[in-house]
Amino acid sequence: MPVSPVSGPPQARISLAPTATVATVPKVDLTPIPKADIKVDVEKIKAQLKQAIEKMNEVARDGGRGLSFHMDSAVGGPVVVVKNSTTGEVIRQIPNAEAVKTAHDIERFRSIFVNKLV
Question: How far apart are CA 6 and CA 2, in angstroms?
C-alpha cells in the first residue's frame, strides 16, 4: 500500500531576514569627570586627635581606672592599654603587644631597606 503524505495545514514559512528595526544606541558622554577639590589639614587632624587622647587619658586617670591611650605611628593608629591599677600589670592591649611589635619590626625593616636603596 502506498504511503500518502500527512494531510493537514500547510507549513508556515520561516523568514530569516530581520523584520525589527535596530533601535538607536544612546550616545555616551565621555568627557572626564572633574576631580573634587578637597583640602584636608592633616596636621590639624593629628593635633585634634592628640588632644582627644589626652582628654581620654585624663578622664580615665580621674576615674581610677588603669586605662590609657596613645598614638603609635608604626601601628598607624591608637593603642589602648588596660592595666591593673594596683599592680601595674597589663590586662589587655588593643592591638595586642605582638601586633605592635610586628608593626615596629616592619617599620624598622622598611627604613633599613629604603636607606640601602637610596
Answer: 12
Distance of CA 70 to the CA centre of its chain: 23
pLDDT average, residue stretch 37-56: 88
| Residue 2 lies inside a defined structural domain of this protein | no
Query: Is the pTM of the predicted complex or chain greater than 0.85?
Result: no
Kindly write down the DSSP assignment for every residue of 12-57, as one continuous string: PPPP-S--SPPPPPPP---PPPPPP-----HHHHHHHHHHHHHHHH
Assess if residue 53 is contained within a domain: yes
Closest C-alpha among 83, 66, 76 to residue 102: 76
Residue 107 CA to residue 21 CA, distance in Å, equals 65
d(CA 96, CA 82): 11
Query: Residue 12: inside a domain, yes or no?
Result: no
How many domains, the chain? 1
Host domain of residue 88: 42-117
pLDDT of residue 19: 55
Q: Cα(20)–Cα(104) distance, rounded to whole angstroms?
A: 68
